[in-house]
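Researcher: I've been going back and forth with a colleague about how Glycosyltransferase family 2 protein might be arranged in three dimensions. Neither of us has a model we trust, so I'd like an independent prediction. The organism is Dactylosporangium salmoneum, in case that matters for your notes. Sequence below.
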Amino acid sequence: MTSIAIVIVTYNSAEVLPGCLASLLPSEGVDITRVVVVDNNSRDDSVALTFAAADRLPIRSVQTGRNAGYAAAVNAGVATLAEEKYDAIWVMNPDTRLRPDTLRILAEALREPRRGIIVPKILNPDGTLQPSLRRKPTVGRALAEAVIGAKAGHIGSIGELIADPREYERPHAAIWATGAAMLLGADMVREIGDWDESLLLYSEETEYALRAGDHGWSLWYDPRAVVEHIGGESGTNPKLAALLVVNKVRLFKRRNNLASASAYYAAVTLGEGVRALRGRRTSRASLAALMHPKRKPSLGD
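Model: Here is an independent structure prediction for Glycosyltransferase family 2 protein. You can compare it with whatever you and your colleague have in mind.
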């Protein structure tokens, strides 16, 4: 039986955390050795609710004392597992819910050699598909998304987002996937090291998956495993939208030469500029952030 440690990152998550923890209780065919809930200085009852579930789950609470970001919180959670024995780490958002067989299916897929990250099908609360798989970031894809927007994901492979529902009906390898729910093989975790804490809140999972690929580990998607995800505010909150856009440009710059990075920046800036002119508040914030790239993003507390 596969031994799995679980890391959940919370920030003012009291409304959704109980449902998340409850969904872990009927997990079939795996041994949950530890559930680490890492709290980024919540002002609600997230920490109290964590302790309330300790009689049902092997819970450990870690409090960062600040809004440290997703990567830093994941790293803090993994660090507490140093003396634990586990085959894999399940990283999940508090606004996700598992089906009873989800972890077992993902653990079975992880047994194939050099598979390092296994991800499930993600559904919205109403049961519709939430596209979660991505292709490699390229200048061409950034330009396509700048010109035609989200529709790029529906036209062949010209967009970074894999939007075709048919692609979510079969198991296959992908370049990266949303970090809301992913199973990480223990050997891969030990080999590639910590998540990159300099990418605050967004693009951490992109960097982690790309780095895993650099080391020869693949990311595998298995649609038999299903997770419900309520989702975040990056599409409506200007500050979060700006963080998302700036981080993906920063990450591309780190991994590519100057000419490619400049072209990618221009493509993303073009797209946000066009949408800002149309009155989109999130694009106005993103454009301002792109024009001042040296400003360090902050989540505040």
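Researcher: What would you highlight for our discussion?
Model: I'd start with this: The chain has ten helices and eleven strands. After that, consider the following. The first strand starts at residue 2 and ends at 10.
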